[in-house]
Amino acid sequence: MRILIYDINYSPELTGVGKYTGEMGAWLVSQGHSVRVITAMPYYPEWEVHKQYKGKLWLTETIEGAIVHRCPFYVPKKVTSLKRILHEFSFVMSSLPYWLRVLVGKPYDVVICVAPPFHIGLIPALYTSLRKTPLWLHLQDLQIDMAKELGMLTNQRFLNLLFQIEQFILKRSTVVSTISEGMVRKAAEKNVIKAPCVLFPNWVDDTYIRPLPRAESLRAELGLQDDDKVVLYSGSLGEKQGLELIIEAARQFKTRANTKFLICGSGGGKARLEALVREYALTNVSFHPLQPYEKLSALLATADVHLVLQKKSASDLVLPSKLTSILAAGGCALVSAVPGTTLYDVIDRHRMGILIEPESADALIAGIDQACRTDLSVYQQNARAYAKRYLSKEMILQAFGDELLRLQQSVSEKELAE
């Protein structure tokens, strides 16, 4: 198949949506498909264009067999709702030259658009309507719903306009998929999707990300002792998670010399967290950059407890991608989730983590204290078993590939019938 992927994020980003879209593109190439990508310069989660791409405009490169067209765009130093809108819109506009080339070229067998940003689906929706090409829309989160629930957008007229644009895109998508059962339900409740929403979860390479003994962890490299109790948060330092709670928890543990908090990552919220650590004169919190993929298993083996924090209002609107790696590494996750959501139910049903109330410093402190005093081996074993059974990269991508082939077959049958 000739496949076109459109996404603001792509490899070599180490975390978030770009990691998964990049791995998907590489896997499709490995299956013999011809893959072309229209994307932006890599910038996430640092919110800064990566060094080797700075100062460049439109460029084309090949990544693991996929031809990748990159566009310049606006990346704000401080992320606000308005600046994020400008950031996303600038990508849409700068990608137009590539779309003009696509429009006059040979039609693709399928266009895969990955959201958010939700509105980048406008151009693929128009293109696929003109060229009679199927559009696969993959929702990594429900961006407008989340912005509304988190209070990031409050103007009702503007929200209504955004929902109307979203409906326009959803109605013109041949296939809509998303990453959790809860998000499948919420997408279906919009009542505009032509076919049942497809579950296409995020995955993990469980042969590469695996449990390691403490001796092979990064404890020595990071100056930690074998008997330290290590609480790790790794990933994007953004607005969804309410990460100030980590600093509040660290204040309560500052008298326990062997309890250490590691924060690995970058993002718009990092400066605020660092300022709080200075304000409270905490010596039990350290910040580190995101580790390269080849060190991920070693980083995860460093921790006794892994933090997966979300705000209440984000429940079932986004499923934290970091969880897949934690589970594959046999880690015990301390997860803030609301009962009845997919995240809560999965963790509870398979007993592979400790659940706490979201947005509560007291609940986080109690959860960390419980984890530090508990034998976590059952959670760790269950986590690894779940990852191998349900999150295997090859299994999930093979199922996705089968769906793509079924889509191609149905399109061919329709053309023959006409």
Number of structurally distinct domains: 2
User: What is the CATH topology assignment of the largest domain?
Assistant: Rossmann fold
- The rounded Rg comes to 22 Å
The N- to C-terminal Cα distance equals 21 Å
Order of helices and strands: EHEEEHHEHEHHEHEEHEHEHEHEHEHHH
Please, how many helices? 15
Name of the CATH homologous superfamily of the largest domain? Glycogen Phosphorylase B
Number of strands: 14
Strand order of the largest sheet: 3-4-2-1-5-6-7-8
Q: How is the main sheet built? A: 8 strands, mixed
Output mean pLDDT: 92
Shape: globular
Q: Portion of residues in helices?
A: 40-55%
In terms of per-residue confidence, which ranges show pLDDT below 50 for 5 or more consecutive residues? Answer: none
CATH class of the largest domain, named Alpha Beta
CATH architecture of the largest domain: 3-Layer(aba) Sandwich
State the secondary-structure class.
alpha/beta
How would you describe this structure in keywords?
single chain, 418 residues, alpha/beta, Rossmann fold, 2 domains, eight-stranded mixed sheet, six-stranded parallel sheet, 14 strands, 41% helix, globular, Glycosyltransferase_grp1, Glyco_trans_1, hexosyltransferase activity, Glyco_trans_4-like_N, WcaI family glycosyltransferase
Layout of strands and helices, then pairs:
Blueprint: E1 2-6, H1 17-30, E2 34-40, E3 59-63, E4 66-71, H2 81-94, H3 96-104, E5 110-115, H4 122-131, E6 135-139, H5 143-149, H6 156-171, E7 175-178, H7 181-188, E8 198-199, E9 229-234, H8 244-252, E10 259-264, H9 270-279, E11 285-288, H10 296-302, E12 305-308, H11 322-328, E13 333-336, H12 342-350, E14 353-356, H13 361-372, H14 377-390, H15 393-417
Parallel strand pairs: 1-2, 1-5, 2-4, 5-6, 6-7, 7-8, 9-10, 9-12, 10-11, 12-13, 13-14
Antiparallel strand pairs: 3-4
